[in-house]
Amino acid sequence: MKNRKNIFFSIIILLLLISGYFFIGSIFKSSEKNLENETATLIINTTDLVNSYIINEKKSDSLYAGKIIEVIGFVKKITFLNDRNTIILNSNSETFGVICDINPNQKENIKQLKEHQKIRVTGICKGFLKDVILLNCSIDLIPNE
Hints:
CATH superfamily of the largest domain: Nucleic acid-binding proteins
Radius of gyration: 21 Å
Number of helices: 4
Largest sheet: 5 strands, mixed, barrel
Shape: elongated
Helix content: 25-40%
Strand order of the largest sheet: 2-3-4-6-5
Order of helices and strands: HEHHEEEHEE
CATH architecture of the largest domain: Beta Barrel
Low-confidence stretches: 26-31
Structural class: alpha/beta
């Protein structure tokens, strides 16, 4: 009887340790995937992307959300708040744009950016909250046309 209790408690402790390892491991695991060498599922300009979300957010989410997309647009603003590098891209709308949360390994590319410069950004689309949100973005500097 005592031997069965020890085996039972040993199994419980082992299961707790295994589940704790996976739970804690997922918390500390970096979710910032480097998209620099990833292929985008589609290429779109900022105006078309924003207009798509304005017209039909649900349909646009099914097309773009969770996917790696490449967006071409002009830099409106560059910010460095809360240790996050963020670029806001213009669209034809005064109210809406594309917010690109830049991967930390892109610091050198961010230093080269200027407002109104045309760039290509590859990131994971997360949806629309007044602006279209892209995460883990990599930057491809292209000359103004």
